């Protein structure tokens, strides 16, 4: 029984005849838990990323405000809230206000189906991963709305390019998820975690690589962040935003980083499972480890060009994801579940061969962009 079900049963038992109120209070408490968790973790992630980038770049990072600079994100949040909210004179004021909400709200909704521990889940849907894919796609609507409502041709061009990026990388990501669904035999995130006696990262190296790189593009994280970079198209689709509205986009980006780190932990790293430590601690440790790799990549790799970005999705990740799906289906059909070690060896061999062959067959292009 999940936490909301336990709370609702307890409230209904103590207040007979007021079952509707038990449902209402349970919903409010669940929303409050998600909101507090996301906001606290986003603040921690902002601080942690800057400190970690400092280490990678052989400097200290923020260290003035509070112990080890822990209050720096709080100070910046206050600064952003105090800034003036400016709306373009000829922009669509309603859509200009609505776009940041559309970008940030799906992040909160994803956490409703994330299993933090056994029973520590707000809604254990039997199609949980389908729900995650569907909800995460809504952010593209908010991004396009932001570009359109700004009445700025550069913001609109950047929004269109961002939507094209999101759609392109959504396909290999979904195909990588299908490989995990075949292994687990369920769309429920709780059952996917329970099926991982061996983490699926070990069984599905190609699936993990495709999913992880696709998620980086979905999150607009480096090296796929050129569409909102300072050096590219006047800093992207949110150039006309300031104050709290800009902060919503900022929260949305880090919220997506947190959400996708949780999904990667759930699908490939065994979720909350681990020895000795409490399950929730294992889950958080794995989430932070995934985010650390994301920061590591940001501090190491340069940005791709936009033509390289799209070619990498269509010529690189998508064919690899399709081949991996067929290989996984064949292994499940012909190999018994007790012989997973053979699947592990085969998949690592296939991963090495595919990466080597694909790197030789397809080039992302160099020099100037030709139109």
Structural account:
- Helix content is 68%, strand content 0%.
- The protein is mainly alpha-helical.
- Helix 2 crosses helix 11.
- The protein folds into 2 domains: 1-79, no CATH class; 83-361, no CATH class.
- The protein starts with a helix and ends in a 10-residue tail after the last helix.
- It is globular, with a radius of gyration of 22 Å.
Question: Any chance you could write out the topology, listing elements then pairs?
Answer:
Elements: H1 3-14, H2 19-56, H3 72-81, H4 93-110, H5 128-136, H6 139-149, H7 153-184, H8 189-194, H9 200-203, H10 205-218, H11 243-268, H12 279-300, H13 306-334, H14 340-361
Helix pairs in contact: 1-2, 2-11, 2-12, 3-11, 4-5, 4-6, 4-11, 6-7, 7-10, 7-13, 10-11, 10-13, 11-12, 13-14
Number of strand segments: 0
Could you estimate the helical fraction of the residues in percent? 55-70%
Q: Averaging pLDDT over every residue, what do you get? A: 86
Shape, per Cα inertia axes? globular
Number of helices: 14
The main β sheet shows up as: none
**Beta-sheet strand percentage?**
under 5%
Q: Spans of 5+ residues with little confidence (pLDDT < 50)?
A: none
